[in-house]
Amino acid sequence: MGLEVVLGIDIGGTFTKFGLVDKSGEIHFEDEISTREHATVEQFIAAFFQHLTNRLDQLDTVFHIKGIGVGAPNGNYYSGSIENPPNLAWKGKIEFVKLMEDQFHIPTVVTNDANAAALGEMLFGDARGLSNFIMITLGTGLGSGLVVNGDIVYGNDGFAGELGHVRAVDNGRECGCGKRGCLETYVSATGIKRTIFELLSEENVESEFRNIPFSKLKPKRITAMAESGDPIAIKAFERTGFLLGRSLADSVAHISPAKIFLFGGLAKAGKWIIDPTKKSMEEHLLPIYRNKIDIVPSALLKKNIAVLGAAALIWKKLDRNRES
Amino acid sequence: MGLEVVLGIDIGGTFTKFGLVDKSGEIHFEDEISTREHATVEQFIAAFFQHLTNRLDQLDTVFHIKGIGVGAPNGNYYSGSIENPPNLAWKGKIEFVKLMEDQFHIPTVVTNDANAAALGEMLFGDARGLSNFIMITLGTGLGSGLVVNGDIVYGNDGFAGELGHVRAVDNGRECGCGKRGCLETYVSATGIKRTIFELLSEENVESEFRNIPFSKLKPKRITAMAESGDPIAIKAFERTGFLLGRSLADSVAHISPAKIFLFGGLAKAGKWIIDPTKKSMEEHLLPIYRNKIDIVPSALLKKNIAVLGAAALIWKKLDRNRES
């Protein structure tokens, strides 16, 4: 038999991370392979299968892998496909679940990375017991997972929860999606970087940022600079939080969540991002919603929430199948 | 025994409409009483009870009223209360369900009028079979009922679905809620009226509207004027639809509905409001959502959807109680 686990996979533009996760959320084995190196999805799946079986053969523990959960950009829970993923080299509509099941012969389910993160928080983090909450993932872009009545909101087509593309600023910054002013062009690792350079253009104040070219600025640096009192860094967090809080006020008017969780590199900035976001959200909320909703960092901030979330996705599905 | 029906009640600022509705959605009796005349909710309920029993005594049919469903501004499904209703004379937190059950001794349930309308469409209208849709009610204000995975979205506190108060315009028109730029200050019977007067201030074009004072303009008139080619009326619908469509694009990014229904006086304007709304929504949608979502008038536009919806609310609850 072996130890019962599922395989959680987080497909990112550069790396694909994965782990074997038991039902309590413990990760028994984790590793990663390159996503970018494989030009086609078929090559990627073949290489991934080879790599995983080699690694598992070297381990002392015997695992019984009951299913595979996948978080991927534009992953669609209903169709099992990944459709035109924005940051991957693979184009078109990829029948990911089918290809994986053909290779692995175990039940596979896919969703987008932010929905996976929301499920991870719900099964293994601080959203346990909450029926209505929002997960915001702040990476290169802004992803979101909405939970209503205890279930992920997939919507009619499986693509619900794209808060990165709500209108934050009229005719604002150019977005990769073809629109302008989308929330993620301001609120994300890339977004706050753009805001740093916007501020350098507007203000005369001295700042170390004046010595760093756009292409070299790492978002992590912005938090360090805020800590050391850099006025541009502090102001960048204020602007970012203002826009995030203002948009979240509108999200609250939709689903009225109990809590909002932040995950990702920018969420690690802690109070620098959370305080201005809270302040702005409260200012923009309809009075009936005020002083009710907490914005907190994910409890899994230091763990691999994407892998845990992908694992949660398939554990949830396996449980449901058993019940029905 | 008598014919099995429920009592559906729609509490509005001026009138309270009600009807006896059977399980197929047929209204067997309907009537209305004044809301405004009764200074306290206790007086209102006593008068309503008196009025209803008098009327039912005069009828030939004997009804067996199994339950009462109520749609009311700020009606809260969870708590059974009406909290600080914006358009009613009754203030504070009113324990409406308790007061009604004390008087009528039958199960009573309350929600807001827009949620009731969504339920009406789901049980008796064109949303039958849809698991994810949005109902927008365009009356004095803009109300909304969101349906996700086949259930109304009540949210953590019972107050979800206030799309009338999302940010339509930065620092825009003054709203009754205390904020500025809320969607309902532009998109509602009152909103389009304000737009007419905005246009009269901006443009020099001849229009019959120049002879009508603000206090006398009836929204119904605006549709008639658009039909007769009045350029201000036509432009007012375009602006209204532009803002509604732009906001709906953001709502789609939240819950990705199969359809969006419009109800209320302004929805009766048909193509005048629907065409510019569709056009604008498509323009502002994230590409993955384009050409998927229909915006249509409610199938119950000519019926009393609010009474039917309130009836649907209690029928749904009675069914659930029987199942569990």
Shape of chain A: globular
Low-confidence stretches of chain A: none
Q: Please report the first level of CATH classification, the CATH class of the largest domain in chain A.
A: Alpha Beta
Distance between the termini of chain A: 24 Å
Tally of individual domains of chain A: 2
Rg of chain A (C-alpha, Å) = 20 Å
Considering the protein shown, what is the CATH homologous superfamily of the largest domain in chain A?
ATPase, nucleotide binding domain
Major sheet details of chain A:
5 strands, mixed
Biggest sheet of chain A: strands side by side, in what order?
Answer: 3-2-1-4-7
Report on this model:
The structure is a homodimer of 324-residue chains. Chain A is of the alpha/beta class and 324 residues long. Chain A folds into two domains: 3-118 and 303-323, ATPase, nucleotide binding domain (Nucleotidyltransferase, domain 5, 2-Layer Sandwich), CATH 3.30.420; 130-297, 2-Layer Sandwich (Nucleotidyltransferase, domain 5). The first copy, chain A, is built from eight helices and twelve strands. Chain A has helices spanning 41-57, 96-104, 113-124, 189-202, 219-227, 231-255, 271-284, 305-323; strands at residues 3-11, 15-21, 27-34, 63-71, 82-83, 93-94, 108-111, 133-138, 142-148, 151-152, 259-263, 294-297. In chain A, α5 (219-227) packs across α6 (231-255) and α6 packs across α7. The first copy, chain A, starts with a strand and ends with a helix. The mean pLDDT of chain A is 94. The interface between A and B is large, with 45 and 45 residues.
